[in-house]
Write a structure and sequence with these properties.
Blueprint lengths: L3 E3 L8 H7 L2 H18 L2 H31 L6 H24 L9 H21 L5 E3 L1
Antiparallel strand pairs: 1-2
Length: 143
């Protein structure tokens, strides 16, 4: 017989929060792909694409960060570990994404290689934030 143990720490995301969390990963990954294309071709339009994709990732990620902050204060003091990690990863993603936007605001030639490195780190942080955020959908585990 299979027994399910339910953990109060793992709760599904609100549907609107899940939608907001869905924006940063593809947008920051698109910015990384655009930076790689710019590095390979030096066509300025790829740097412009990166700037717009980063801006979109910051908007969606900013609202997801705000939602995570509200959830952090709404929850009681017990079992906050996962929420704190989620908030810190989102905050680091947004902060590095903002620095990346400032780097991409410079001349296209001046964005390399810092913009490429920041895009890679921001994409990785967006992946970790999505992983931590969406893993709350698992409400029980098999023993």
């Amino acid at each position: 017989m299979v027994a399910l143990s339910h953990s109060g720490d793992l709760r599904p995301l609100h549907p609107l929060h899940a939608i907001l969390l869905a924006f940063p990963l593809p947008l920051f990954a698109g910015a990384l792909a655009s930076d790689l294309a710019y590095r390979a071709s030096f066509h300025i339009q790829w740097a412009n694409f990166s700037s717009w994709l980063i801006a979109g990732g910051l908007v969606g990620g900013g609202f997801a960060l705000l939602w995570a902050l509200i959830n952090l204060f709404r929850r009681g003091p017990a079992r906050k570990g996962r929420l704190v990690v989620y908030f810190i990863v989102l905050l680091a993603m947004w902060g590095l994404g903002f620095v990346n936007a400032l780097i991409h605001a410079k001349d296209a030639w001046a964005t390399m290689p810092e913009g490429l490195y920041l895009s890679a780190i921001t994409t990785l942080l967006a992946l970790v934030a999505a992983w931590v955020g969406y893993s709350g959908f698992r409400t029980g585990e098999v023993k």
